Amino acid sequence: MMSMRKNIVAGNWKMNCDISQTYLLLDALKEQQISDDVSVIVAPPFTSLQSANQALLDTDILVAAQNMHQEATGAYTGEVSAAMLKSVGVDTVILGHSERRAIFLETNALLASKVNIALDNEMTVIFCFGEELKDRKAGTHFNVVKQQLQEGIFHIEKENWNNVILAYEPVWAIGTGETASPQQAQEMHGFVRNTLAEVFDTDVSEGVSIVYGGSVKPGNAKEIFSKEDVDGGLIGGAALNAADFMAIVNAFE
Ligand code: PGA
What we know:
Blueprint: E1 7-12, H1 19-30, E2 38-43, H2 46-55, E3 62-65, H3 82-87, E4 92-95, H4 98-103, H5 108-120, E5 124-129, H6 133-138, H7 141-152, E6 164-168, H8 182-199, H9 202-207, E7 209-213, H10 218-225, E8 232-235, H11 242-249
Parallel strand pairs: 1-2, 1-8, 2-3, 3-4, 4-5, 5-6, 6-7, 7-8
Helix pairs in contact: 1-2, 1-11, 5-7, 10-11
Bound molecules: 2-phosphoglycolic acid.
2-phosphoglycolic acid binds at residues 12, 169, 174-175, 213-216, 234-238.
């Protein structure tokens, strides 16, 4: 049985928040009301994961990592494995964020191996993809996205798709204040869902949650989330402010 798709809002804290700032932000989040129809995830840096998980034990908010390594263990100085994340209670990981792709040169092939080890460890993967501005200007954005999915996640076995969340993040909209219009987001989300229906079947395409990321704010979340194939958001900047993040969490109609 495929899981039914859910509304999800995830906060990607990036390289922000030391441990005291982590506690402050989480305390502020815990004071707010969350409606029942949305799953909330926060992704603090590695150094805050264990504490965040402990602090959120009595809530429904889940903790995710922002990255992890593709090997199980070994001589990989500076890296963190799936088992290490699980050992501090973290079962969810963001993979393929555009900053990992652009700054740390992560390729689709590398991401495919990260996806595999995450799923082998029964983790949930938030898989990010999205075109750059030059691709959109050239009109190749659908091809670029299809290739990222083809090389990154089309190999996933059908029974593992309930552990996958997709995040469409057009690179030109991340941290720029420029959002994709709700229509542009819907158009790409619809394309991804149709592609998944062709490659797999409608159990997969209708079951998977596809969230949008890129300058989502309290003022634009409602309209973006109202689109048929948009199941929520991956939030960067606005996730660092509890009131803004919670306004986005509660932006579903
Ligand atoms: P932003 O970041 O909301 O600050 O644009 C989104 C992301 O990078 O996930």
